[in-house]
Design a protein that fits this description.
Layout lengths: L1 H25 L2 E7 L6 H12 L1 H5 L3 E7 L10 H6 L5 E4 L23 H23 L1 E8 L3 E5 L13 E4 L2 H9 L3 E4 L2 H10 L4 E5 H7 L7 E3 L7 E7 H5 L3 H33 L14 E2 L4 H8 L1 H17 L3 H13 L3
Parallel strand pairs: 1-2, 1-3, 6-7, 6-8, 9-11
Antiparallel strand pairs: 3-10, 4-10, 5-8, 5-9
Helix pairs in contact: 2-10, 5-13, 6-12
């Protein structure tokens, strides 16, 4: 009898041991993620949200993500790094410009005039990626997983303009210090306004002009409260994906490799989609075809002159880099020199 009992006990232990790996395999990891604002439009809706909501399938890992756009959480998009450092979320779709006050080094990704087109922006993102990743890990315990663009940030006005100099004396919505300095240089008055509040600001006359991506403006209805569109790219509105080092380090090396590969694929898709959206949105905003991704409006399209293009490109050396370098070097000694040796060669700046 005792032998039989021992046998059954042993069999039960063996069965439990055999089942344990299977049980462990079924255990799923839960991540919480902050997304881009709903108001930013199609990249958030068609690329980002599906990626996070199908995270397990996209990564090949047993991970489920609770994804919430930042404007549904009751927190400010300027607080993302602080919230990540506190460990309240695992993943974030990082609003680069909005978090530059907490980490000025970030702004080196998107200085006014440095990325006038997609090809140049890719070079900048690639050249500066490791610098940003290292800084975020040191200061916020956050790892950079990828960089992607909303697209060229262009000018919308509710007053007639024919050239950049026409914004002299006008109030212009801006979203970071680099852009603010440039608007001051051309005689305008920069007014920091959150993206979600800009439609109302234009409508009420709080600002005369505003800067954002063509597709985001279309999605948010800015052409309802403006009359002119000038498709000159001040910046590329680079954004990123990041995760806490705690969550990253909890994964095995092979899981980390799969995760990074998934983010690489995701960001590549967004780069391509952003470029498609940009041209289509310019058409939609000015009532032209093809217009397949947005709503048609009747803005006046203001041609970009060679002089204005040169004015923006020259802003890097004249305004945006010097102003940023002073601020960045105070919080991160050697910041500007690091930028010169990484990004400088990528954009032909000596």
């Amino acid at each position: 009898m005792k032998l039989r009992t021992t046998f059954h006990t042993l069999a039960a232990l063996l069965l439990a041991a055999a089942l344990t790996p299977a049980a462990q395999a079924q255990e799923r990891i839960k991540f919480k993620a902050i997304g881009q604002p709903l108001a930013t439009g199609l990249i958030q809706k068609n690329k980002e949200q599906p990626f996070f909501e199908n995270f397990g399938a996209r990564t090949g890992l047993p991970i489920d993500v609770d994804y919430k756009p930042v404007d549904t959480l009751g927190i400010k998009d300027t607080e993302q790094l602080r919230i990540m450092k506190a460990g309240l979320f695992d993943l974030v779709s990082l609003r680069i410009a909005q978090n530059t006050r907490d980490e000025p080094t970030l702004l080196g990704l998107d200085l006014v005039g440095a990325s006038p087109d997609y090809a140049t922006a890719r070079k900048v993102a690639s050249a500066y990626f490791d610098t940003i990743d290292k800084r975020l890990q040191q200061q916020f315990n956050v790892k950079l997983m990828g960089l992607w663009p909303f697209g060229p940030q262009v000018l919308f006005c509710k007053k007639p303009i024919t050239k950049l100099a026409d914004v002299k004396g006008m109030k212009v919505r801006v979203y970071d210090q680099s852009l603010a300095k440039f608007i001051e240089m051309v005689g305008g008055t920069p007014v920091p306004v959150g993206f979600a509040d800009t439609h109302q600001a234009l409508s009420l006359g709080v600002v005369d002009c505003a800067i954002t991506g063509a597709s985001s403006a279309n999605s948010a209805g800015w052409p309802e409260v403006s009359t002119h569109q000038m498709p000159i790219g001040f910046q590329m509105a680079l954004n990123g994906y990041a995760m806490t080092m705690k969550s990253w380090n909890a994964l095995k090396p092979d899981q980390q490799a799969k995760l990074k590969a998934a983010f690489d694929k995701q960001t590549e898709e967004v780069w391509k989609y952003s470029e498609e959206l940009f041209q289509d949105a310019l058409n939609c905003n000015t009532n032209k075809d093809p217009c397949t991704t947005g709503k048609k409006f009747k803005l006046v399209n203001v041609p970009v002159s060679p002089a204005d293009l040169e004015l923006v490109r020259g802003a890097v050396t004249k305004v945006s880099f010097p102003a940023w370098a002073e601020v960045c070097d105070k919080s991160n000694p050697g910041c500007s020199q690091q930028w010169k040796t990484t990004v400088g060669p990528a954009i032909g700046m000596k």
